[in-house]
Amino acid sequence: MLDKVLRIGLLYDFYGALLTDKQQRCLEMHYLNDDSLGEIARANAVSRQAVYDILRRAEQILEDYELKLGLVERFKEEQAAIHSIYGCIDSLSDEERKIPQIKLALEILQGLINREEET
Questions:
Q1: Listed residue (94, 116, 114, 91) closest to 103, CA to CA
Q2: Residue ranges matching CATH 1.10.10.10 in the chain
């Protein structure tokens, strides 16, 4: 269940703006605020079944966007690259870190980190 929550959260970060306002609201209430279907239904003046249907449809839409666009997978690959670079740099001596190519790698890494922090 936690894996699903994390996956939907990540998909929502990338594609949430493409959902309807009601879909966004329901997903936020359910996954971010941990509200029950009943609580969401009362807040939106709809039935629990309607909330369930909205959530399932929104989840499917997010999965479809990822299947077509692959932004989450690309993000994960970039994160793996960042960790790989960190591992390489951590294994170098202080003298080796002064090498121009290493300095360039650090600049590239810093750019990736800054971009990640902005999202």
A1: 94
A2: 2-69
Give the distance, in angstroms, between the CA of residue 34 and the centroid of all CA atoms in the same chain: 18
- Tens digits of residue pLDDT in 60-71: 999 999 999 999
Position 119 pLDDT exceeds 70: no
Q: Give pLDDT tens digits for 7-56.
A: 999 999 999 999 999 999 999 999 999 999 999 999 999 999 999 999 99
Contact 12, 27 (CB under 8 A): yes
CATH architecture of 2-69: Orthogonal Bundle (1.10)
CB 51 within 8 A of CB 37: yes
Phi-psi region of 34 (alpha: psi -120 to 50; beta: other; left: phi over 0): left
- Among 53, 6, 4, 2, residue whose Cα is nearest residue 26: 53
